[in-house]
Amino acid sequence: MSYAAASAWRRSLRGALLRGSPWRAGPSRQASTASAASSGAAAAAPNKVPPPPRKGRLLTGAMIGLTIAGGAYVSTTDEATLCGWIFRSTELVNPLFALLDAEFAHRLAVTAAAHGFVPKEKRPDPPVLGLEVWGRNFTNPIGLAAGFDKNAEAVEGLLGLGFGFVEVGSVTPQPQEGNPKPRIFRLKEHGAVINRCGFNSEGIVVVAKRLGAQHGKRKMEETSSYASSNSNVKQGGKAGPGILGVNLGKNKTSEDAAADYVQGVHSLSQYADYLVINISSPNTPGLRALQGRKQLRELVKKVHDARDEMQWAEDGPPPLLVKIAPDLSKEDLEDIAAVALSSKLDGLIISNTTIARPPPAETHPLAQEAGGLSGKPLFDSSTRVLKEMYILTGGTIPLIGCGGVTSGEDAYKKIRSGATLVQLYTALAYGGPALIPRIKAELAECLERDGFKSVQQAVGADCKPKKA
């Protein structure tokens, strides 16, 4: 805000506050007073308006002073400081969501993000957090996992929070309600959630229309500097400055899982910076059986073929990833790693929610509710699976670490265990928007503390033989 604009704003605000006050002589009052004086030679002098009480004058003066001071502060504060204040202020509002029904609170949060009623990050990310994956630049490795914005309603608002990437879905071919309510349960004491939503989705047609509109808007807003760039690494993604992932699911009643995923590829892949085959939700009967070696190989081949037969521009088709469960044996992980390498998968997400009840969640009164558990108690098991998969694949496939991330230190541990990128969800539900800049700042501190100049240098650091 310029000095002139700030001065005008303060004058107009002062006028608005004084308007109607008995001791403010407006133009009409001045005119009537002058008329009365000229025609009242023989009349008595006009009555004077009594001054306001001393307390009123002090209170009004203090209000005006505070308001003008506040306006002056806002007008002179740098954008970074103001942005930080706005993010921190959400900590006052977020506890109110805990008073609401869990699913209603989630619905309210999505609506707020869809309509821009969330903070917008305007501060640049620390350079140490930037990295290149799949030929695109990520300003930071922290992403929002699938499940929050199932129907791609709030992509722009969520990317604006400062995530390096956002994943929408899971999206099913046909609309479906999912499982009966209630189906989301908070284990607040443990920073965990149990859900059995069951792929509630508005369906591919609705999501495709939304993503198509966003894609068109993005194309119109591309800057000339981007258009003239000679870099082979794409700046931003198809939804804006951040990267957009689309998570595909199958309908509960579908008898041909591969056909459902192929339909998702045909309808949504042109809007995605990467695609995810979700075969690990515990809330769709039979879905996890697709993680077997034979079933997974056949499924990946059909989805790969469907993607590759489409017409693509110079940047080519979106990378294809598979999201797996944390409840897998060593043999299961070996099978998945073998398929990932032989099928040339572009990445794996590790992991989805767990059907186990890791301590201390197993003692919670709601622990016996059916569904997948996410949040803090999932961190250790999902990170262990992540590390094993990094070793099995020899670090040749980008891995996204997901499960129980609540801090920058957690994200750093995921990265050192083999994750190139990191996702969170449950922590956002409890911590709100203020969590995002805090995690990024903490992660940057961790990297710099241990002498890493980039995220990529730290990937898999705990999986590599230590130097003598």
Structural write-up:
The protein has helices spanning 3-18, 27-39, 54-76, 79-97, 102-114, 155-160, 204-221, 224-227, 257-268, 293-308, 330-342, 379-392, 408-416, 426-431, 435-449, 455-458, and strands spanning 131-133, 136-138, 142-144, 165-171, 184-187, 192-195, 234-235, 243-248, 274-278, 320-324, 347-350, 372-375, 399-402, 421-424. The chain has 468 residues and is of the alpha/beta class. The strands form three sheets. Strands 3-4-8-9-10-11-13-14 form an eight-stranded parallel barrel, surrounded by four helices. Strands 1-2-7 form a three-stranded mixed β-sheet, with no helix packed on it. It has a three-stranded antiparallel β-sheet with strand order 5-6-12, with no helix packed on it. Helix 9 links the parallel strand 8 (243-248) and strand 9 (274-278). The N and C termini lie far apart (57 Å). The model is unreliable at 16-49 (pLDDT under 50).
